[in-house]
Each structure stands twice: as structure tokens, then as C-alpha cells.
């Protein structure tokens, strides 16, 4: 997470209706929110659409924002999490395009045979992640994409650090099991 | 009836993986899940759109719709009340009038 005091100052100004302050917060978090949504939807177009919705909603409600001792980023992630949940619910009737079909698997520097093995491994891994419940996917993304600590993830997800540690362990176990099943 | 088996025996145990296997999985996650960079054009365009489209208009539209629904509901209620009342009144007048 970024510098808390500068966030708080910008947030206080944004609550007072300062557009420039909200703009600072936008520049700071738009990439992180996009990343989170991208890995939850596996689709750049939907990631852009939902990221736009998150910031429109945040701007629309910023003046009624109440400081409950959690960072502004936690509020943004909460909005994003809810919008992604609605997106999954609305899309459940349509045919879902798997995450691994969208995410760019091959890295240019790899020799072809290594790239093929890596791509297959990644495909299985991404498929296994996409089958996890929403909160577990969120935990994995915050930890490995955003490189957050357990304490930071706990703040974002509104749980204790101990609960996050335990959930992380269970998530890895479950993910390992899913990968083993997919490899059979 | 008791079968002699304890509850724990009936439940299939989840497989526990070794520390090495879990560490290997963590390494795979570190390698596979890389941050992605959103299209800079999207960032600029969204920033522009945030201030170009006033959100208040959307909220006002929602409020207008709600007022319209409430007004329509009240009107329909009043109309229904008037119809029932007038039908009852007609019935009472018929009963009172000599055959």
C-alpha cells in the first residue's frame, strides 16, 4: 500500500470536493484496481469497463465517505470486489471465457520448448485459480500481483492477520489439489 | 444405530502436501502472476470521462424515476378507492330506492 499520510491528506481534500485531490488518488490506484479486476475477470475489456465503474462510483460517493480507520485503497478494493461479484453473477448464464485464454502466457525471452512447458504449467495454474472462491482469488491476487503483506491484505479484506494466514495456507493446499486433479 | 466407526473415520481426509510442494507452488505463483499495465490511453480517457460526466445527473435521474413511481402509485390507489366507493354508493342507493 502507498504512503498513508499523503493518502489521508488527498482523501480529506477530495471529501471536501477538491477534484485535483481525487485525481491524485485516481492516478495512484487506477493501475492496482485494474490489475485486481483483470486477474478476476481475465479479460482486458471487462477490466477496463469495471475499473471505470469503480472510479465513477468512488467519485460519486467520495463526499459521503466515512473514515472507519481503514485506508482509502481498502474502500476501492471493496467496490471492485462487489462489482466483480456482480459481473460473475450476471455472466454465469453466458458462456465464460477461461482466464488462461486471455492472459498472455508466452514470454518472449523463453526458448520455444521451455515456453511450451511454462505455458502449459501457467495454463493449469490459472485454471485452478479461476476455480477458487472469490475471497481466495482476491487473496492470491493481492499477495502475488500486488505483493502485499498479510497485514495489508487483512486490512483490505476486513479480517485479522491470523485469519489471512490461515486462509492463505488453506488456499495453497486447495490450489495444489486442484492442480493435481487438472494434471491427471 | 451405531456402526462402531467414529465421525472422523467417515470423513474423507484432505490430502496434505509437503512443504517442498507448497514452496514450489508459491514459486510458480510468483513467476506466473505478473502485474499488467493498463493501456495508457484508457487511463487518460477514463480520467477525462470522470470529470466530463457528472455523476449527480445519474443520481437525479434515479430520484426522478422514484418520484414518478410513487406519484403513479398514489394516483392508482386514489383511483381504485374512488371506484370502490362509487360502486358501493350506487349499491346502497339501489337498496334504499322503493322497488
Please state the structural category of chain B.
mainly alpha
The overall pLDDT of chain A, averaged over residues, is 85
Give the terminus-to-terminus CA distance of chain B: 79 Å
Number of helices of chain A: 9
Largest sheet of chain A: none
Quaternary assembly:
heterodimer
Helix content of chain A: over 70%
**Overall 3D shape of chain A:** globular
Rg from alpha-carbon coordinates of chain B: 36 Å
The topology string of helices and strands of chain B comes to HHHH
Percentage beta strand of chain A: under 5%
Fraction of helical residues of chain B: over 70%
Q: What is the ordering of alpha helices and beta strands of chain A?
A: HHHHHHHHH
Low-confidence segments of chain A, given as residue ranges, are: none
The residue-averaged pLDDT of chain B reads: 79
Structural class by SSE content of chain A: mainly alpha
- Relative strand content of chain B: under 5%
Largest sheet of chain B: none
Straight-line distance between termini of chain A: 39 Å
Radius of gyration of chain A, taken over Cα atoms and rounded to an integer in Å: 18 Å
Verbal overview:
- The complex is a heterodimer of chains A (184) and B (99).
- Chain A is an all-alpha fold and 184 residues long.
- Chain A contains 9 helices and no strands.
- Chain A has helices spanning 4-15, 19-41, 44-61, 72-91, 99-102, 112-130, 134-144, 150-157, 161-183.
- In chain A, helix 2 (19-41) runs antiparallel to helix 3, helix 3 (44-61) packs across helix 4 and helix 6 crosses helix 9 (161-183).
- The longest helix of chain A has 23 residues, at 19-41.
- The model of chain A has no long low-confidence stretch (mean pLDDT 85).
- Chain B has 99 residues and is mainly alpha-helical.
- In chain B, 74% of the residues lie in helices and 0% in strands.
- Chain B has 4 helices and no strands.
- Chain B has helices spanning 7-10, 19-32, 40-52, 55-96.
- The longest helix of chain B has 42 residues, at 55-96.
- In chain B, 1% of the residues are buried.
- Mean pLDDT of chain B is 79; it is low at 1-5.
- Classes of the chains: A mainly alpha (184), B mainly alpha (99).
- The A-B interface holds A 19, 22-23, 26-27, 30-31, 34-35, 38-39, 44, 47-48, 51-52, 55-56, 59-60, 121-122, 125-126, 140-141, 143-146, 172-173, 175-177, 179 and B 14-17, 21-22, 25-26, 28-30, 32-39, 42-43, 46-47, 49-51, 53, 55-56, 58-59.
